[in-house]
Write a structure and sequence with these properties.
Helix 24 links the parallel strand 24 and strand 25. The protein is built from 27 helices and 26 strands. The strands form five sheets. The protein has a seven-stranded mixed sheet with strand order 14-26-25-24-15-22-23, sandwiched between helices. Strands 6-5-7-13-8-11 form a six-stranded antiparallel sheet, with no helix packed on it. The longest helix has 35 residues. Helix 14 packs antiparallel against helix 26. With 759 residues, the protein is α+β, with helices and mostly antiparallel strands.
Length: 759
């Protein structure tokens, strides 16, 4: 089949089930990236996603699926990915594929005529969720049935050992071991064929075969059983870690009441398109992002932003999919399709955050690549050197070497970082704290200074005109009219305040043309052929438009914490407008919390120095005022010399400074910007969420360090005890799977952590 160059390498995504630890993801990546025409392979453990670029003229999609299936994993096209022509051929590849949280676009799996003939190969179907989205119990899965089978055989063998002659008992143990290790061995040789000799399955297979060879059949069977138990425990723990992301997906209702000319009718929520009107009854979840067109009600946004108190919203207010309407019926106009709503984007952000790996995680990955071959080499040395060089007993040293092999799996170490990061991302997302991956978490944990934009961040962003001082024979209404005519059409908070005052006083707003914003200085426009300007006192003074008496007046108003603008008509001062934007209620508390965390706080604003000083003094932080956008970037760069800098702003005016900072945080429910431009976002309009974000990141890094200590500590202890012969095979395998389960459970503690509550 011929393809254009553009089509030659397309991006494909699959859902891969059965990944329980970091080495699973490593095996999948290793197997598929060796295929011709495959590039940019990403395997996300927590979101169970395989993404890659594929040139189908070299390798078909079914070949990728076959490579993953051979390793013992379930695989199906990700939701929204069409299977296409090559995918249909998968029906002859020897595995049944399916999604687990994602439909494959066809509503069913692709059945194959033959499987690999072991208990594990059927586990993919078993891992598929039930109709209500819940998981099957562990004993209903293939891995669970393997545990029951090997456990039953082991019990039978022990019974035979006590009842029958010793030789017969030994044979029953051997049979139990062989049956239990068969699926593991198949996966080991599939990985070997894919060029990966160092896998836990291979080490397990060698250990079991070696134990049988030296006559330790009873222990070999026990080790195989414990390995199967460990896999089930890892699967249960990994699925628990994924539940946070799944819970988000379940927030959006499946159906919506669409308003039509003939009344309302029930439709699938995912079928809604922008522009349609939906009826949301009291107690219903809002089915899509939208704007209220009629009605007023309390909206519980806690599922989306973590804001626990319902917010009263009326006509023109934005609402999020998944929020709960608490009081009265609302008509909501849909503004975003289902795939693009706030929750869908939060889920996408949490899933994709796995790709933004923390430096610690990258180091652990590099370390683990050398760790397993080192242990294999050490085991070989332990098996051979003492008997050959020092006359040691072969069986004794081979046994110790086999125990060492089982410590060679870096599972616990590899999962120690991603499990903690996934849990902290999930815990944060539930509380309206979004971080784009491990690298961002690590950077936030190291922040030494937080810089805040003033308007809309430290202040409520709703300034009001509090003083109008006319000059040059103009009256109050003329001054307001001139300012409002220039600001008409602007969405800046100061402009909105001036237009609101014009509306309240009945001042006329005349049509304008040629409106032009002067960065950091003000705005000008032609009104009735006359050039009108609304500019800062500083700019007015520099251009000689501010008389001394007016300058003194402006200075006095600024000293009261007000923002002053000068209204200029035909080159003369017409008057001063003073506006005040009150600090947010929790701003002072947020600065206090940052101080307790040992983090400095600085306000960066384009406003005049006196207004900035009045607000900063009240909040207890330092300030830099009268800054142009490029000045903010310079200030952030200067602060970065003494440690990590976080910049908190609205994500639009502060884009250059947000990009320059170690971590740029967008604040407020402007989710377009919050989810796409900054490194992190706080969805609630709360300044106290900034120290909460730092606490969460620090807690996550502390958890990661605990996990690394647990994983390496247990390995080190059992490394020594195995060589000394203190611990044997079954304790070695318990140490390996036990460490994996321990670090996963430790990471899960983060799900319950509430960073808003100071410790």
């Amino acid at each position: 089949m011929t393809m254009s160059k553009h089509e030659a390498a397309s991006v494909f995504e699959w859902t891969v089930t059965g990944m329980d630890c970091g080495s699973c993801a490593g095996k999948i990546k290793g197997a598929v990236e060796r295929l011709p025409g495959v590039s940019a392979v990403e395997v996300a453990l927590m979101s169970e996603r395989l993404r890659l670029q594929l040139d189908e003229s070299q390798t078909g999609r079914q070949t990728v699926e076959k490579a993953v299936s051979a390793l013992g994993f379930g695989i199906s096209p990700r939701a929204g990915q069409e299977q296409g022509q090559s995918g249909k051929a998968a029906g002859c590849c020897g595995h049944e594929h399916h999604g687990h949280d994602h439909d494959d676009g066809h509503g069913h799996g692709h059945h194959h005529d033959h499987a690999h003939g072991d208990a594990h190969s059927h586990s993919h179907e078993d891992e598929k969720p039930l109709a209500d989205g819940s998981r099957r119990a562990w004993h209903q899965t293939g891995k669970g049935r393997l545990v029951i089978l090997t456990g039953g055989l082991l019990a039978l063998a022990w019974a035979a050992h006590f009842v029958l002659p010793p030789q017969v008992g030994a044979w029953v143990f051997t049979v139990a071991c062989v049956i239990g290790v068969a699926p593991v061995a198949r996966r080991a040789f599939a990985a070997l064929a894919a060029g990966m000799p160092f896998t836990i399955e291979m080490l397990m297979t060698i250990a079991a075969a070696g134990a049988l060879a030296i006559g330790a059949a009873e222990e070999a069977a026990l080790v195989v059983f414990l390995f199967a138990v460990g896999e089930v425990l890892e699967g249960v723990a990994a699925n628990r870690a994924r539940d946070g992301i799944r819970a988000l997906a379940r927030l959006v209702p499946k159906t919506a009441l669409l308003e039509t000319d003939s009344g309302t009718r029930q439709v699938a929520a995912e079928s809604l398109v922008p522009g349609q009107m939906v009826l949301v009854r009291p107690g219903d979840r809002i089915p899509a992002d939208g704007v209220i067109r009629s009605g007023i009600s309390g909206i519980d946004e806690s599922p989306v932003t973590g804001e626990s108190v319902p917010v009263t919203k009326g006509e023109g207010a934005e609402v999020f999919a998944g929020s709960i309407n608490t009081e009265a019926a609302l008509s909501v106009q849909v503004t975003r399709a289902a795939a693009d709503n706030t929750i869908a984007r939060i889920i996408k952000l949490v899933e994709e955050a796995e790709s933004a790996r923390a430096p610690t995680e990258r180091f652990i990955d590099r370390f683990s690549r050398y760790y397993m071959p080192f242990i294999v080499l050490l085991a070989a040395t332990v098996a051979v050197v003492p008997p050959l060089g020092f006359g040691g007993e072969w069986n004794t040293w081979i046994y110790r070497a086999l125990s060492l092999l089982l410590i060679g799996c870096p599972c616990a170490l590899v999962i120690s970082v991603p499990a903690s990061i996934a849990s902290s991302l999930s815990a944060g997302a539930r509380r309206g704290l979004l971080m784009k991956g491990g690298a961002v978490i690590e950077a936030i944990a190291q922040v030494k200074t937080v810089t805040f934009d003033k308007t809309g961040t430290l202040t409520a962003g709703r300034p009001q005109v509090v003083d109008v001082v006319p000059f040059g024979g103009f009256d109050v209404l003329e001054v307001i009219s001139a300012a409002a005519s220039v600001e008409a059409g602007s969405s800046h908070p100061l402009a909105k305040a001036i237009l609101t005052r014009a509306q309240e006083t009945g001042a006329s707003v005349l049509p304008s043309s040629g409106a032009r914003a002067m960065a950091g200085r003000g705005v000008e426009a032609l009104v009735a052929g006359e050039l009108l300007q609304v500019i800062s006192p500083r700019h007015a003074s520099e251009t000689g438009l501010l008389p001394e008496s007016a300058a003194a007046q402006a200075e006095r108003l600024e000293g009261e914490g007000k923002t002053v603008v000068c209204v200029i008509r035909a080159g003369n001062l017409a008057g001063l407008l003073a506006l005040r934007d009150e600090p947010r209620e929790d701003a002072r508390e947020a600065i206090t919390q940052l101080e307790r965390l040992g983090v400095g706080a600085v306000m960066l604003t384009g406003d005049n120095a006196r207004t900035a000083a009045a607000i900063a003094t009240g909040l207890g932080l330092t300030q830099r005022a009268e800054l142009m956008p490029e000045d903010k970037v310079r200030e952030v760069r200067a602060l970065a010399a003494s440690g990590g800098v976080m910049m908190v702003g609205d994500g639009i005016n502060d884009a250059p400074a947000l990009a320059q900072a170690s971590v740029g945080v967008a604040m407020g429910s402007g989710t377009d910007v919050a989810l796409e431009t900054a490194h992190a976002a706080v969805l609630r309009d709360r300044v106290t969420d900034v120290p909460a974000l730092i606490r969460l990141a620090r807690k996550a890094m502390g958890n990661i360090h605990q996990n690394i200590t647990i994983a390496l500590g247990l390995k080190a202890v059992f490394l020594v005890t195995s060589i000394l012969g203190i611990t044997g095979l079954w304790l070695a395998i318990m140490a390996d799977t036990g460490a994996t389960v321990l670090v996963t459970l430790n990471a899960l503690r983060l799900l319950a952590y509430d960073p808003a509550k100071e410790v």
